[in-house]
Amino acid sequence: MGDVSSHEARARGPRLIALAGPFQCGKTTLMEAILAHAGAIPRQGSVVEGASVGDASAEARAHKMSVEANVATVDYMGDSYTFIDLPGSVEFAQDARNVLPAADAAIVVCEADERKIPALQLVLRQLEELGVPHFLFLNKIDAATIDVRDALAMLQPASRTPLLLRQIPIWNNGVAVGFIDLALERAYVYREHAPSEVMEIPKGETATEKEARYSMLERLADYDDALMEELISDIEPPRDQVFDDLTKELRAGLVAPLFIGAAERGAGVTRLLKALRHEAPGVDATRRRLGVEDSGPPLARILRTVHTSHGGKLSIARVLRGAFADGQPVVSPHGEDRVSGLSRLFGAATSKAAAAKEGDVVAFGRLEHAATGDSIVGDGKADAAALKKTRAQIPDPVHALALSAKDRKDEMRLAAAMSKLVEEDPSLVYVHDQELSQIKLFGQGEMHLRVALERLASRFGVAVEVAKPTVAYRETIRHKVTVRGRHKKQSGGHGQFGDVVLEVAPRGRGEGFAFAERVHGGAVPKQYFSSVEAGCQDALAHGPLGFPVVDVEAVLTDGSYHSVDSSDMAFRTAARIGMSEALEKAEPILLEPVLAVDIFVPSDAMSRATGIVSARRGQIMGFGPRDGWDGWDKLETLIPEAEMDNLIVELRSATAGAGFYQARFDHLAEVVGKQARDIVAAHAAKANGG
Is the Cβ–Cβ distance between 610 and 407 less than 8 Å? Predict the structure, then answer.
């Protein structure tokens, strides 16, 4: 394509290319190979050895995996490209949700590994729903054990968009030594960490190449009547026409071209880069996809937020329209700021930039009011409400920990540090549960929370202790009882006197507390009814088993008063005493929260998922195919909240990282026998400092 003149216009200006794909398919290694081929680094570094431009954070190095988006801007053949390497683990997928809408195109790195197909489907579905044009790069071709067309057939069910095979490998003694480009009809031999070299198409590969090329042209002809006529008439289409079709159909999302290579050896990277250069759209197409007008004040979308130890807050953003300069005033949905420094990014390194032009990806310094997902405008008259519409969806959390600062004097610092971590990663949720007196951190999985705590310690110097979050048990009563509550106190001057008769009974589950009165003859004056109700509610805060009481009713039926000593407080105290006694007499029972949990798994993991549910005292309420997702099932269950700990860990282990669930409170259910006794005893011991 470097030597082909295509009529379809090549995009101009800086482009943003996202590297996406399942966990451990080689995205970071591919970015390293791209940087080496572009001459941005002297040689390709190793992810395993911790010598790559991407995955430069201490957490990524320690876990040998991407835990945040990594950005690198390079020049290739006179064009500027920003590559953003996105984490493959579903636990860190929020970065992809934030970045992909603003990308011009994506390279989806994948393998011929059937176990990773569900995870690949998650990535491809996201790109399809966003309308982002994407190429596939079938990595590790040097280690493949199946024919590339069989690999294509394996990968196709993961994609709603037809996959278009662009290259076939040349094999020598079971090793891929090169490839044939089906569009150029040219063969290349791989060179270790160097551009591939042109070679003659081996005679034994000619028939295979013709067949594969015809299949590619047939797929293109589905959208080009002129090409279809040529194929029917056995007319060889002009090469320019083929490349025009490849470009148009990629940009329209009609096909997803499949390239092959081995990122670790740098094999296949040059042709991939040239395809990007000639076929990937530019920022003007991305604006149209996002509904952004071509004309208007400068506009940028924030892709990621980073709090640095020395430089303060950095907002990594894509300029979608116009240009920004250092010192320029900007407005976001949350307020006005002034740009304090512009930086270009290359992994962990930054370099100052005088300005940011349309299409660039830069870091804006100290935009205190702007958050990840916001749009910012270089015009104070911007409609802040309209800017909020760009925010990416944030999934519900699926894993939780209770936190406490190891050193009590760090409690304020813990809250401040957590607010910064949540600003960097909106898929973290940090709450202070007042009822349970617990600080809770919610996230997308075990590793997600582990990395957050590592950052908390290394970047903010706050060490924490973690525990399993406390379950919000409740209690209620089984029987109806009648009690008298009496409060009498004499201590010089006015005394205190309140006397009530209460009829206390259970209500239906979920009906809450109700109060009524059936007092005759003015035994208790009306003015004290509200105090009696308040006293009853006081007693509900801490029932005989030690938990809040729900679903009971109290009826005031009788009592007495003193014309001098009775007061609101006296009747409130009398009611609390009576209600507490009633709750003890009425056979208190323990209730636990039960969640409705919808579990989504690849169909072949359904039996494992049902086993996981059954082992957690779960009930299966229904199951069937997941709507709109071939090869996936949905399992509808009820699971006690006490059994939810590490559910996501088990599910992902059973589904090669692809399974997930959505949970919501459903009802309270009675806990009986030894389990109930153990819960009450543990709660009492904790309350007594045990």
Answer: no
Residue pair 281/104 in contact by the 8 Å Cβ criterion: yes
| C-alpha closest to that of 102 among 299, 332, 272, 344 | 299
- What's residue 143's pLDDT? 85
User: 323: part of which helix (H) or strand (E)?
Assistant: none
Give the orientation angle of helix 117-130 with respect to helix 148-155, to 10 degrees: 70
The pLDDT, as a whole number, for residue 1 is 38
Neighbour count for residue 437 (Cβ, 10 Å): 9
Phi, psi of 615 (to 5 degrees): -70, -10
pLDDT value at position 686? Answer: 87
| Secondary structure class of 316 (helix, strand, coil) | strand
The count of C-alpha atoms lying within 13 angstroms of the C-alpha of 611, restricted to the half-sphere facing its C-beta, is 7
Residues lower than pLDDT 70 in the chain: 1-8, 380-390, 492-493, 690
Phi, psi of 523 (to 5 degrees): -60, -35
Cα separation, 87 vs 105, whole angstroms: 17
Vertex 95, ends 92 and 98: CA angle to 5°?
145
C-alpha span between 502 and 556 (Å, rounded): 5
Rounded Cα distance, 605 and 660, in Å: 12
What is the pLDDT at residue 391?
Answer: 73
Instruction: Give the pair of three-digit tokens for residue 461.
Output: 């110097």
Is residue 75 within 8 A of residue 83, CB to CB? The reply is no
Instruction: Outline where 280-396 has alpha helix (H).
Output: 283-290, 384-387
Query: Is the overall model pTM greater than 0.90, yes or no?
Result: yes
Distances (CA, A) of 601 to 629, 644, 656: 10, 17, 10
Tokens for 309? 């130890």
- Contact, 559 vs 501, CB < 8 A? yes
Tell the burial category of 662 from Cβ atoms under 10 Å away from its Cβ (0-12, 13-18, 19+). middle
E strands in 15-145 = 15-20, 70-76, 79-85, 105-110, 134-138
CB 304 within 8 A of CB 98: yes
Task: Read off φ and ψ for residue 458, nearest 5 degrees.
Answer: -80, -40
> What is the model's pLDDT at position 488?
95
Q: Give the up-direction half-sphere exposure of residue 118: CA atoms within 13 A in the CB hemisphere.
A: 20
pLDDT of residue 3: 40
DSSP state letters, 462-490: --EEEEPPPP--EEEESS-EEEEEEEEE-
Give the pLDDT score at 7: 55
Residues 582 and 642 sit within 8 Å (Cβ to Cβ): no
Q: 568-585 and 529-540 are packed helices; what angle lies between their axes, rounded to 10 degrees?
A: 40
| Contact in structure between 266 and 36 (CB atoms under 8 Å) | yes
